[in-house]
Design a protein that fits this description.
Largest sheet: 8 strands, mixed
CATH class of the largest domain: Alpha Beta
Strand order of the largest sheet: 3-2-1-4-5-6-7-8
Radius of gyration: 21 Å
Helix content: 40-55%
CATH architecture of the largest domain: 3-Layer(aba) Sandwich
Shape: elongated
Number of helices: 11
Strand content: 5-15%
Order of helices and strands: EHEHEEHEHEEHEHHHHHH
CATH superfamily of the largest domain: NAD(P)-binding Rossmann-like Domain
Number of domains: 2
CATH topology of the largest domain: Rossmann fold
């Protein structure tokens, strides 16, 4: 498995590190980025080949993974197109960028996989949704699974619109969790705890609850009910959340993220 990365930022570095930990030789990976600091980091940290721009050497790789900001997707893709080979799988981790638009910018390249990972990939605990164009065969899908699976779980979809939904749930989801942790830390402060105490309790609570949910066969609603004694402290907190519409607000926020991903596809796809 030989993979070239277009963009050598944090997510690309996480994937490179994950692949190397899974046994992919460093000399099978190529990180391209115009930023000298990014090239230096990837070369020194992982021992991979680096370059400042796409070149003819790309044809020797099985997959080309595009890890740049969606705002520059068209320019990057058009610069990449002359160097692609028909057999290669192009993997995109760009939010909002649709397969048809990316394929068009790549001169009609037919083997495209659109994905949406999230930032826990940086510690090998990511969650990634994937969808493939019709031109991607089972071997190509497996290649994409192996690549993104190097940093966490993968979930395939048949409908590309669901990748916008993935953006709203797991792509943006870590920010929701951090937001809730911030709120618990603030509550701890107001209850007289110092910063270290509040942070330790908030993070350990999230970590433990998430692991309990992962290891249990029961749905989160049942686990929640087991913590909630009638007339007790948890019941008082949940009643306050319900009165403030917390659950509805979280759902509304995730739907807003999905809508924005769709808007980005329309916005950038018109280029």
């Amino acid at each position: 498995m030989k993979i070239a990365f277009i963009g050598g930022g944090n997510m690309a570095a996480a994937l490179i590190g994950g692949l190397i930990r899974k046994g992919v030789p460093a000399d099978h990976l190529y990180a391209i980025d115009p930023n000298e600091d990014a090239r230096k980091r990837n070369a020194e940290q992982f021992g991979v080949r680096t370059g400042a721009a796409a070149d003819a050497a790309l044809a020797g790789y099985d997959a080309v993974l595009i890890a740049v900001k969606p705002q520059i997707a068209k320019a990057v893709a058009e610069g990449l197109a002359p160097h692609l080979a028909a057999h290669q799988v192009v993997i995109s981790i760009m939010a909002g960028i649709r397969i048809d638009d990316l394929s068009r910018w790549l001169n009609g390249h037919a083997r495209v996989v659109r994905t949406m990972p999230n930032t826990p990939a940086l510690i090998g605990m990511g969650a990634t949704g994937l969808v493939a164009s019709r031109g991607v065969d089972e071997a190509g899908r497996q290649l994409a699974s192996d690549t993104l699976g190097a940093v966490g779980q993968t979930v395939w979809f048949d409908d590309e619109a669901k990748i916008d939904a993935v953006t709203g749930i797991s792509g943006s989801g870590p920010a929701y969790v951090f937001y809730f942790i911030e709120a618990l830390e603030e509550a701890a402060r107001q209850l007289g705890m110092d910063e270290q105490q509040g942070r330790a309790l908030a993070i350990a609570t999230f970590t433990g609850a998430a692991q309990l949910a992962l290891q249990s066969d029961e749905p989160p609603a049942v686990l929640r009910e087991r913590v909630t004694s009638k007339g007790g402290t948890t019941a008082a907190a949940l009643a306050s959340f319900d009165a403030s519409g917390v659950k509805a607000a979280i759902v509304k926020g995730a739907l807003a993220a999905d809508a924005r991903a769709k808007e980005m596809g329309e916005e950038f796809g018109k280029q």
